Amino acid sequence: MPLFNVYPLYDVTPVSGKGVYVYDEKGTEYLDLYGGHAVISIGHAHPKYVEAVTSQVSKLGFYSNAIQNPLQKELADKIEVLSGCKDYELFLCNSGAEANENALKLASFKTGKSRVLAFSNGFHGRTSAAVAATDNKNIIAPINAQQAVTILPLNDIEGVKKELEKGDVCAVIVEFIQGVGGLDEGSAEFFEAVDALCKVNNTMFIADEVQSGYGRSGKFFAFQHYNVTPNIISIAKGMGNGFPIGGILIHPDIEAKFGMLGTTFGGNHLACAAGLSVLNVIEEQKLIDNVNTMSEYFIKIAETIPQIKKIKGRGLMLGLEFDFEVGDLRKKLIYNHHIFTGGAANKKLLRILPPLTVKKEHITMFFEALIETLTEVETTVA
């Protein structure tokens, strides 16, 4: 049976990984500066992660949410300590799209309203309401387009005010650093004004931290760079270091009721073990400190390269913008230098999303390869 052909694939077949490297079936080593869409947070096959998952699966990998699972409470408590998000409650699911879907559903339950405000170039997932709030008509089917969503430009505070005052908006959902869209950010004044407007218009403010959370921005959550208090925070990618897990943190002003949300696989024993090991490693290895140190080193070098027109993002959620499309550049980095990087909706942007364990030597290796490749491109054009 053929696979449904929806992914354009590079001709690389990773079969194993260790730290910031993956290896193909021939043993070729690749430097992974993309982490499978920012999923690999503590490095491939981290020994503490492997130990935790192996130990848990040998005992009990799964049972339903109809029974007690102390690992869920342990995970919730650990998130509270490391994130500093006191008094929030945790609902666990399996992915970022599910997290945002449940966030939007909760917002609608809480407010009794149904319209959503989202922003240009935002990406929130591929399921029903989440994809409707995503600024990409190519992935919104007619069944999704039934959702009531208004998309506004970032920093358009007057537009937000006008829409919220209509009284039918249940949620404003925002990536504080856009991922797929190309690492654009709103201003501090904009985010803080949106938060204030939501609070006076009975609208839930949702922080989509699916990609930017878990230390990637240099703080545990990207919204913590600003003076805002989201009603709901969605998390996923780096949460399980490759094991499917997602969730939402829910402010205590939203009251839980039996049956309100539900999931078969969300918060299973194996997922919780994976999630706990990630948090333990982030804490023990002081990885958020490493994010900030490596980010500073990366940006310092990037600023010396004239072909780079703009450096975008924060922490280890970074983008390098050029005055040409980077598709061929990415291919040369993969095939000639064995380095994985990422693209974005902005075709001129190279995305860098390495494991949070990345070191200076890896960043140096990347820039050496980048400079060599840029020189080759310029020579070819000339």
What does the secondary structure layout of this molecule look like, with pairings?
Elements: E1 14-18, E2 21-24, E3 29-32, H1 35-38, H2 47-57, H3 70-83, E4 89-93, H4 96-111, E5 115-119, H5 128-132, E6 149-152, H6 157-164, E7 169-174, H7 188-200, E8 204-208, E9 232-235, E10 246-250, H8 269-284, H9 287-302, E11 310-314, E12 317-321, H10 327-335, E13 339-340, E14 349-352, H11 360-381
Parallel strand pairs: 3-13, 5-6, 5-7, 7-8, 8-9
Antiparallel strand pairs: 1-2, 2-3, 4-10, 9-10, 11-12, 12-14
CATH first level of the largest domain: Alpha Beta
Strand order of the largest sheet: 4-10-9-8-7-5-6
The largest sheet, given as strand count, sense and whether it forms a barrel, is:
7 strands, mixed
Class from helix and strand fractions: alpha/beta
Average pLDDT over all residues? 96
Contiguous runs where pLDDT drops below 50 for at least 5 residues: none
- Rg is 21 Å
CATH H-level superfamily of the largest domain? Type I PLP-dependent aspartate aminotransferase-like (Major domain)
The H/E string reads: EEEHHHEHEHEHEHEEEHHEEHEEH
Structure write-up:
The chain is α/β, with parallel strands linked by helices and 382 residues long. It folds into two domains: 14-46 and 286-381, Aspartate Aminotransferase, domain 1 (Alpha-Beta Complex); 47-284, Aspartate Aminotransferase, domain 2. Helix content is 35%, strand content 16%. It has helices spanning 35-38, 47-57, 70-83, 96-111, 128-132, 157-164, 188-200, 269-284, 287-302, 327-335, 360-381, and strands spanning 14-18, 21-24, 29-32, 89-93, 115-119, 149-152, 169-174, 204-208, 232-235, 246-250, 310-314, 317-321, 339-340, 349-352. The protein has a seven-stranded mixed β-sheet with strand order 4-10-9-8-7-5-6, sandwiched between helices. Strands 1-2-3-13 form a four-stranded mixed β-sheet. It has a three-stranded antiparallel β-sheet with strand order 11-12-14, with helices on one face. A hairpin with a 2-residue loop joins strand 11 (310-314) and strand 12. The longest helix has 22 residues, at 360-381. The N and C termini lie far apart (47 Å). The mean pLDDT is 96. It comes from Algibacter marinivivus. Keywords: Aminotransferase, Pyridoxal phosphate, Transferase. GO terms for molecular function: identical protein binding; pyridoxal phosphate binding; transaminase activity.
